[in-house]
Amino acid sequence: MASSRGLTLLSILLPLAFAAAPAAAEPVRIVALGDSLSAGYGLNAASEAFPVKLEAALKAKGHEVTVLNAGVSGDTASGGLARLDWSVGADADAVILELGANDALRGVDPARTKTALDSILARLGERGVPVLLAGMYAPPNMGDDYKARFDAIYPDLAEKHGAILYPFFLDGVVADAKLNLPDGIHPTAEGVDVIVERILPAAEKLVEAARSRS
What is the pLDDT of residues 135-188, one digit of tens each? Predict the structure, then answer.
């Protein structure tokens, strides 16, 4: 009789225990919308690209995430705007926006670059998607006026749209021959490691922002 009551009690408690257990959190889906710098141009394997390494770094910090590579080599801010809807699907929880380097290299009017990035941020904001805005600096040979106008784009837009700002995507890597491919522009696998290490705190803030909206 006692064993029968014990089994009955166990049959009641076990379902309650499972019901009380928290469900595993769904991975946060982050889309890295960028150009060749984040896409992994010139690297030996896709696993060496920024999105893959950032995903691994975030997971090592205990974050359940998926970082999707939506980088297109040669893309500009206007190009990113044109492909926004199909590059950043409805299932995206957050976006890392890394565009503008090609604009600066080609001397695109900073006003045009700013307008395109502004539109991307506005449209993502309408969808409630938090953004980490990875900034870029214009090369010095573009002239002081151009550089001043271009470099101001990212802090201005981050403030306007409430985006998380990482001021310079290539921080710690630019002009270091050991961390760049022979073209002096694109990071090596080791360069990507430096980028990931430095941007990681901002990426963790992005994950927190995405979690808070769900």
Answer: 999 999 999 999 999 999 999 999 999 999 999 999 999 999 999 999 999 999
Cα dihedral sign for 96, 166, 182, 52?
negative
Of the candidates 3, 183, 212, 214, the residue annotated as catalytic is 183
Q: What is the dihedral of CA 62, 64, 134, 68, to 10 degrees?
A: 140
Q: What is the DSSP letter of 165?
A: E
DSSP for 81-129 reads HHTHHHHS-TT--EEEEE--HHHHHHT--HHHHHHHHHHHHHHHHHTT-
| Residue range 44-94, pLDDT digits in tens | 999 999 999 999 999 999 999 999 999 999 999 999 999 999 999 999 999
Residue 122 lies in a domain: yes
CA distances from 120 to 3, 35, 76, 163, 164 (A): 66, 15, 12, 12, 14
Whether 6 maps to a domain, the answer reads: no
Active site residue 63: no
Confirm whether 186 is a catalytic residue. yes
Within-domain flag for 124:
yes
User: 209: domain CATH number?
Assistant: 3.40.50.1110
